[in-house]
Amino acid sequence: MKNMKLRAPKYFKDFQCIADKCKNSCCSAGWEIDIDNNSVKLYNKTNGEFGQKLKRNIDFNGQPHFKLKKNGTCPFLTKDKLCEIYINLGSNSLCHICKEHPRYYEWFEGIKECGIGLCCEEAARIILSQNQNFSTYETEIPYESVEKYDNTLHENLTIIRKKIIAHIENPEISFNSKMKNIISYGNSIQQKIYDNSLTSLEIELENTDTNFKYSDSLKNILKFLLNLETCNKDWIPYLERCINLYDDNYIRLPEFISANPKVNKYLENIATYFIWRYFLKATFDEDVLSKIGLMTISVSVIRYLFLCEWIESGNLSLDSCINIVRTFSEEIEYSEENLAELCDACYESQDFSSKKLKEIF
Fold first, then answer.
1. Number of domains making up the chain
2. In which element (H, E) is residue 113 found?
3. Does pTM top 0.85 for this prediction?
């Protein structure tokens, strides 16, 4: 049988659901969970009292899915925050989404790439806590088919992604300079794609650090987020409060970074996550610009929310950073509509232009 390679960040194998220890269980997030066909067959064949409960709590119309309670909680989540399906039928009985979350995958010819998503509390903890440079491992898995794409483009983008991640990790360059350089680099790469000349990858990434300057560019991006689809009812009031305090808070950014030396490492880990997860999607749509935009927008918004937390609470713990990142990811990454809106804005809105994004850093 033909095989392919699974390529994953080294921290991928460190992830394990923490179940009842999770403060923000995905089983109570209000997400509608579709059930794959194999799981539907298993649940339909389950007898006894639990089998009856399964059938009562699945909507079989259209794509089968669990019927959530009025508070958005899965009907099979116990008061102890454990899964009744797991308890009664074992780990292999979980439907595909429940078994895989927060893992994600991207398919290329002969390679299946994966990672863990920031919307999960434990995954966010693992990613933010990384102290070593980003690295991957590979293992063989059964072959899975993939849609056709431009192999040369994919090979070049793979090299470029590696260069971007190496630049993010470069200790000789300040964080702000890294972000500015990557924005400029993304512009150059996108132009080369337009010109059908993506062969020369020797684009210099220089240290262009400047002193802190006030900018309202980020404020306009935060206002843009107010108009996106929401998952949690508390997200919009939280954003509005942070926006109302922008002028007072933003000028304290240098003081905040100086007082919290770990923050830049957290942000580097987040930037690497976004580049690893999204950049090679440009293989299929030739859109590098929005992938770079998504990363820099996410990093700048998260940094500002870290700043607000530090000012409001007087400190910034790893747990509070995890909660901010998890909430942001849940609202932005786990809505296809919101991701599309942000990507479109990188082309359509002046506030999301490369010039304006560079002003934030």
1. 2
2. strand 111-116
3. yes
